[in-house]
Specification:
Length: 406
């Protein structure tokens, strides 16, 4: 007979963990306080072309995702704290520059600077979370930081909208200041974890991650999930607008982020007691795909919101389980490199998903087959789920990792 599983111990966050949670809220809140207003200010207010602003925002995203890979490798050399703090400084300068920009070159330069800042702190932040959290508590810690980010995603646009009557400059500078506050919080609470000097760290760590066949499979298969997850900003938003007009975007995003704030942590606690991490990830991807598939049959906005609720439940599980599995696969001395390399799936999947989502919607309209995008995305979820089962077949169980850590 086997002993029944031991329930996870109560999670009492340390000062470093609380600092990371608070900083994530500030970072996401500051980001969403200003980025949604960029289009409003420069296109609607100043008459710039939408294409020019789209280029600025797209290059910022590309810069951040591209540098995230190297930011993670660098943190294996320096430790995550210096890079996170440097990233906060650059993001502050970038957002402040965007707030005062009056020409396209100055706006582009400021946006790229903000992207460089994000590339410096993204992967090191995940590495820092892993470093200050015990293995059995990591999924809950990643969940709490995700909740804080979603709460920032909800409150950021509200703060930005409230400040907009005072001018875009005021809103932008306020958003920039939140990164200074995050910097101060982390400077006080986050220890400087000095990584062990090993021959395979730094850029060589990226090579190690790329040559790790198990991790490479996992990263590449996850591209399929990020093709799905980006549809909340593309196909789902287009369908919401077609059903309920431009005003549909606020309740759409508000419900998605609000559900994450309310349910992500208790849902994760429920799942981690009953389901192995790898199985939970596969089931969550299938839930996201099923929700997208059901959108083919949504004829009213409330029906669409019901599908979005299922979609959100799936995404709540994917993020913490994905990050937990990355931490479980990575050698302790190469956490930054592995987290950085894992950003490839988000960068590629997000870019491909944005293109494919819009193309499928247009193709469905041309062929008079509106279900085309949703059925295609459902098939993508099935292929991704099968791929994850294959990629994760020999990943160590949580019990094995906990045993090795004791």
């Amino acid at each position: 007979m086997t002993a029944p599983p031991v329930p996870p111990a109560p999670f009492r966050p340390s000062a470093a963990q609380l600092g990371l949670i608070a900083a994530n809220f500030l970072m996401w809140g500051g980001f969403f306080a200003v980025i949604p207003l960029v289009t409003v200010h420069f296109v609607d207010g100043l008459g710039w072309t939408a294409a020019s602003i789209g280029l600025v925002l797209g290059l910022r995203q590309l810069t951040q995702q591209g540098l995230t890979v190297f930011g993670g490798a660098w943190s294996d050399r320096t430790g995550p704290k210096p890079l996170i703090l440097a990233g906060c400084v650059l993001r502050t300068l970038g957002f402040a520059g965007m707030a005062v920009s009056t020409t396209f070159p100055s706006l582009l330069a400021a946006a790229l600077l903000a992207g460089v800042g994000g590339g410096l702190f993204d992967a090191p932040k995940n590495s820092a979370i892993t470093s200050v959290t015990r293995p059995e508590q990591r999924s809950r810690m990643f969940s709490l930081t995700g909740i804080a980010g979603n709460l920032g995603m909800v409150t950021g646009p509200l703060i930005g909208a409230a400040l907009l009557p005072l001018g875009f400059r005021t809103a932008g500078l306020t958003a920039a200041a939140t990164y200074l506050v995050a910097l101060a919080v982390l400077a006080v609470t986050l220890p400087h974890v000095r990584p062990e000097r090993v021959a395979g760290s730094g850029l060589a760590g990226l090579k190690t991650a790329a040559l790790d066949a198990r991790f490479r499979r996992f990263t590449l298969v996850l591209i399929g999930y990020f093709i799905l997850s980006t549809q909340i900003n593309v196909a789902v938003t287009l369908k919401a607008i077609s059903l309920a007009g431009l005003g549909a975007t606020a309740p759409l995003y508000g419900m998605s982020a609000g559900l994450s704030v309310l349910l992500q942590y208790p849902l994760l606690r429920f799942v981690e007691r009953r389901v192995r991490t790898r199985h939970a990830l596969v089931a969550a991807v299938l839930a996201v795909g099923t929700a997208l598939g059901l959108m083919a049959f949504a004829r009213t906005f409330p029906q669409l919101l019901a599908c979005v609720a299922l979609y959100s439940l799936g995404t709540m599980i994917v993020f913490p389980t994905q990050q937990t599995l990355v931490a479980r696969i990575a050698p302790p001395a190469l956490l930054g490199s592995y987290f950085g390399f894992s950003a490839i799936s988000l960068g590629v999947g997000g870019a491909v998903g944005s293109v494919i989502g819009g193309w499928l919607v247009d193709a469905g309209a041309r062929l008079d087959f509106p279900a085309l995008p949703w059925l295609t995305l459902f098939v993508v979820s099935l292929l991704t789920a099968v791929g994850l089962r294959w990629a994760l077949r020999d990943v160590p169980r949580r019990e094995d990792v906990e045993g090795a850590a004791t």
